[in-house]
């Protein structure tokens, strides 16, 4: 992404072929930038963006835009820029992670408010909530791994009921794997009850 002027227009340059191709993207059509009353919003700048992933045929780019702690996740359509999607506003979610699920960028895994969601980017709908109390996700295509709090935290209504139960189970952090289409996730590692600082990474490939 290249910006030559102080406005919201960026040129997306493709340098894969001998002749460089350029596509103009107007982020003012995609992002709503807040400004004080009576003031004009400052144009977006290159340093506010980070590229998260490219689709398998390079016709879509998932980017993350940050300004004043406001985060927008945007799926740029490189061949039809006006069809680019601001996933944050479309789904009305404060995503902390978004990962493409397939090479055509029609599905994605996303983390918002501790919930692992599977998104349909074509119909702009949430397919399912995979898990709750999730802290971190990583994916390899249609398979997603995640760290989540799992266990039976018992909340007692009375002191008497608490006294008679000796089997309160402490919740622990576990790593799970879920594959698209399966009924449930599989627990593979128990990280213990302490706050986990484990690094969760999966390789990504498009077949």
Written account of the structure:
By secondary structure, the chain is mainly beta. Helix content is 5%, strand content 44%. It contains 2 helices and 14 strands. It has a 4-stranded antiparallel beta sheet. It has a 4-stranded antiparallel beta sheet with strand order 7-8-9-10, with no helix packed on it. β7 and β8 form a beta hairpin. The chain is globular, with a radius of gyration of 21 Å.
Rg to the nearest angstrom?
21 Å
Mean pLDDT: 77
Helix/strand/pairing category: mainly beta
**Beta-strand residue percentage:** 35-45%
Helix percentage: under 10%
Task: Describe, in short, the structure shown.
With 207 residues, the protein is mostly beta strands. Helix content is 5%, strand content 44%. A hairpin with a 6-residue loop joins strand 1 (9-14) and strand 2.
List keywords for this structure.
single chain; 207 residues; mainly beta; 14 strands; globular
Q: Topology of this protein?
A:
Elements: E1 9-14, E2 21-26, E3 49-54, E4 60-67, E5 70-77, E6 85-86, H1 87-91, E7 95-100, E8 107-112, E9 115-120, E10 125-131, E11 134-140, E12 143-150, H2 159-163, E13 172-179, E14 186-192
